[in-house]
Amino acid sequence: MLVKKLKETFEQYDGQSVTLQGWVRTNRNSKAVGFIALNDGTTFSNVQVVYGENLENFDEVSKITTGSAMEVTGKLVCTPDAKQPFEIQAENVCVLGLCDHDYPLQKKRHSFEFMREIPHVRPRANTYYAMFRLRSVLSMAIHTFFQDRGFVYVNTPEITGNDAEGAGECFTVTTREDAKYDKDFFGKHAQLTVSGQLHVEPFALAYRNVYTFGPTFRAENSNTTRHASEFWMIEPELAFADLADNMDCIEEMIKYCINYCLEHAKEEMEFFASMIDKECIKRVTHVANSSFERMTYTKAIEYLEKAKDQFENQDIFWGMDLQSEHERYICEKVVNGPVFLTDYPKDIKAFYMRINDDNKTVAACDLLVPYVGELVGGSQREERYDVLVNRMKEMGMEQETLQWYLDLRRFGGCKHSGFGLGFDRMLMYLSGVANIRDVQPYPRTPRNLIF
Ligand code: 4AD
Ligand code: MG
């Protein structure tokens, strides 16, 4: 019997015998009676197993260590006055796999740093146990949101010939044999994708509304709490949509995901609110119920200039790339909530963004949120062939490898827009967990490659 199922229907099992398997979270006992907190992996909370001297292996059971796997058969008894709605009075306990004494998870609280060294047992510690289920629930929220609205899910390649963002932050892909001769992928230049955007755009021009959802890779050697070398990204692309439509979609999606997680990962979110960030539920609930501000980059620079004494980097000028402290100031101090910054200077943004009539800015939008900073980056795409070719020339880009991308502008091109949501950052935002290394099952950052 699975505990999740049992929790929904336990009243009808009152007084009956049930069999559960799971892992021991704690085992306390006195001479004649003992209590095991058992977790079978299907719910966040444990089930209490009570055992006494009626067990023929009482001595063995009283020595079961934390982390061990076991099976129990016993009578389910409803306990309406206790914290737990029911308990299991053990009649038979079978130890399936004892946990050795050097098991690294002990009762005390371990630091996040320590836990990162042991990713193979990390999912059994409460914070991670809650996080990785939340991760699964959030994936489902995203798929449900887009599938309900008729978006087609496209699998874009991980191995690619282009650097979509043009930022030069790519990992090269090669074979062992080619690497010996300093060549690339079977003689061709190849790298791990930094974004699926360029590959998903052709699908938007066939299916109208599409999205990718998969791993992306960035070779930036930045050791921050928000950057990973491998992270997951959701990249929707909408045909016949402009920047305002794009922002509407982002806002609707974020709100949907918040509500979905509050409903489907209730125990996990309550755990984060009690142990990690007291405000997290209140904060995201508020976000789900208010409208997101929209502010131009130019306006943001005005705010930053007025407050420049507060920053480490005080060199504020129009055209600068905002740093994390500046982004956080805008969403935490000026707006106190999520804010879209729009119309960035073209020189600090990617080549594919649509140039505005002022010829200085592009139709871009970044969604900034308190605590995390940039959560989403998006734009309306440049659909005018000549303008795009000129922009690529201006930026010194090679046209040849992206001719197929340019061709889309000649083969029934239309106005279209899209964005990228950082999946790992969304988990940070929901839970209040402050480091991206603690929302990833196997963190991949410059100094964190542990098997
Ligand atoms: O702003 P970015 O670089 O945008 C793109 O890649 C576009 N091609 C998206 C699109 O329009 N289809 O990245 C999008 C988001 C960021 O806002 C951030 O949340 C996340 O991806 N992100 C990272 N997350 C973790 N570690 C990193 N190194 C990240 N770099 C970006
Ligand atoms: Mg960005």
Automatic annotation (TrEMBL):
InterPro entries: Aa-tRNA-synt_II (IPR004364), aa-tRNA-synth_II (IPR006195), aa-tRNA-synth_II/BPL/LPL (IPR045864), Asn-tRNA-ligase (IPR004522), Asp/Asn-tRNA-synth_IIb (IPR002312), NA-bd_OB-fold (IPR012340), NA-bd_OB_tRNA (IPR004365). It is an enzyme of class 6 (ligase). GO terms for cellular component: cytoplasm. It catalyses: tRNA(Asn) + L-asparagine + ATP = L-asparaginyl-tRNA(Asn) + AMP + diphosphate + H(+). It is found in: Cytoplasm. GO terms for molecular function: asparagine-tRNA ligase activity; ATP binding; catalytic activity, acting on a protein; nucleic acid binding; transferase activity. The keyword ATP-binding applies. CDD domains: AsxRS_core, EcAsnRS_like_N. Keywords: Aminoacyl-tRNA synthetase, ATP-binding, Cytoplasm, Ligase, Nucleotide-binding, Protein biosynthesis. Its EC number is 6.1.1.22. Residues 132-441 form the Aminoacyl-transfer RNA synthetases class-II family profile domain. PROSITE patterns: AA_TRNA_LIGASE_II (PS50862). One of its GO terms (biological process) is asparaginyl-tRNA aminoacylation. Its main location: cytoplasm. Homodimer. Belongs to the class-II aminoacyl-tRNA synthetase family. HAMAP family: Asn_tRNA_synth. This is Asparagine--tRNA ligase.
